[in-house]
Q: What sequence folds into this?
């Protein structure tokens, strides 16, 4: 469906889930110049943390970062676009803040 609308896209599935993050762009205006999937779980980020912290922060959330460059025949700046799944738990503001920190370090 997206292709029929003149869009290209990239998708990063969440681990052990059926959803994920998607970024789409107008094919006539931009090309994908690079992309990165960010996994927030401590084991995937390779940050040593105590087991109790690791179990609290393991939520299978991720982010997708795409660098878009002007398509052939177009000029202009490159864009860095990011979208994310942050953990929603009301008692887990620390988890959301940590996930956002990891995302911003990657951007």
A:
């Amino acid at each position: 469906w997206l292709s029929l609308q003149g869009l290209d896209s990239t998708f990063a599935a969440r681990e052990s889930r059926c959803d994920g993050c998607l970024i789409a762009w107008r094919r006539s205006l931009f090309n994908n110049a690079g992309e990165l999937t960010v996994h927030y779980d401590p084991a995937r980020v390779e940050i040593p943390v105590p087991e109790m912290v690791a179990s609290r922060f393991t939520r299978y959330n991720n982010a997708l970062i795409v660098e878009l460059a002007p398509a052939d025949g177009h000029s202009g700046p490159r864009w860095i676009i990011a979208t994310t799944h942050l953990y929603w738990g009301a008692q887990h503001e620390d988890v959301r803040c940590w996930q956002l920190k990891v995302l911003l370090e990657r951007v």
Observations:
- Residues 3-106 form a domain with the Deoxyribonuclease I; Chain A fold (CATH 3.60.10.10).
- The radius of gyration is 16 Å.
- The CA atoms of residues 24 and 57 lie 29 Å apart.
- The chain has a mean pLDDT of 90.
